Amino acid sequence: MDSLWQIIYGAVGNWIADLLGIVGAVMIGFLKSKRPNWAVPLLYGLCAFAFLELAYYAVDARHTLLSEHAAITNTANVQDKVRTWLDTFGLNARYVPESNSYFRYDITMINGHGITVCRLKEPQAQSVYLMVGGNLVPNIALADSLNKMSEIELRNLTRQFGIEAARQKMSYSSVNAKTGVILQKRLPIGAMLTEDLFYEAIDNMDASLTIIDVMYEAIQCKQESSTSRKQ
Questions:
Q1: At what angle do helices 195-230 and 140-147 cross, to 10 degrees?
Q2: CA 6 to chain centroid
Q3: 127-162: per-residue pLDDT in tens?
Q4: Among the four residues 36, 163, 194, 196, which has the most C-beta atoms within 10 Å?
Q5: Burial letters for 32-49: b for 16+ Cβ neighbours within 10 Å, e otherwise?
Q6: How many Cα atoms occupy the beta-carbon half-sphere of 97 within 13 Å?
Q7: Based on the domain organization, do 203 and 141 belong to the same domain?
């Protein structure tokens, strides 16, 4: 409906502009034949009016272009946009100064998972991406349960962690059943980086950490159940 009204508005505007042009031309022709001394001042007036109209449209077009540019996520405004998105979603985020990052926010999710959002300075190729990262490290009790597992079981568990990361289209700098996981998601900084895409990455990261956390809990419960039966 809005598009239809824009088309109608544009068509009416063009029709009125054409009509004013015709009326102006007729008036100048009439005055030139009947009142020659009035024709030249009127012509100057119409030219001045046309110049002002062109200036107005030029300024308006520039304003529109600047507004559209500001709406697009880029390296100059990405930090402000991330801060706004974090506030919009009501996430518990804390700004953390870091020498290797243009900015970094540490987020604590409701379930306790920690997620980091940052823009790295080095390597240079990474600076055009927004990095979303999450890590999960086994606690002391879980580490004891993992130590009781065979190497084959640990490799299978590590493989399951890798499959979950791949399912969410995430990369990882570390996936190890014993030491934990460090997941990463790179979001290109540009027109495609929107509020929806940003929150989807946060949500997917939290979901992956939750699934891995559940896998760890299942192992711990299994070990505790086995110990109880032996007693």
A1: 60
A2: 29
A3: 899 999 998 888 888 888 888 888 898 889 888 888
A4: 194
A5: eeeeeeebeeeeeebeee
A6: 0
A7: yes
Please, are residues 132 and 118 in contact by the beta-carbon 8 Å criterion?
A: no
Cα separation, 167 vs 204, in Å, equals 10
DSSP H or E segment with residue 33: helix 2-34
**Which CATH number characterizes residue 197's domain?**
3.30.1460.10
**Which pairs count as long-range contacts for 57-60, CB under 8 Å and 24+ apart, including other chains?**
none
When comparing pLDDT for 126 and 16, which is higher? 126
Instruction: Report the C-alpha gap between 144 and 174 in whole angstroms.
Output: 20
* Cβ neighbours for 121, distance < 8 A, ≥ 6 positions apart: 100, 101, 102, 127
Instruction: Count the domains in the chain.
Output: 2
Based on the domain organization, do 39 and 90 belong to the same domain?
A: no
Separation of alpha carbons 12 and 7, rounded Å: 9
| One domain for residues 98 and 209 | yes
Q: Name which residue leads in pLDDT, 164 or 227.
A: 164
Output the six-digit token pair for 198. 């940003």
CA neighbor of 165 nearest in space, from 98, 217, 119, 211: 211
Beta bridge partners of 66: none
Q: What is the pTM of this model?
A: 0.66
Q: In this structure, are 53 and 86 located in the same domain?
A: no
Residue in 210, 221, 224, 9 with CA at minimum distance from that of residue 112: 210
How far, in Å, CA of 202 to CA of 93, rounded? Answer: 12
Closest CA to 203 of 143, 140, 134, 129: 134
Partnered with residue 116 across adjacent β-strands are 106, 133
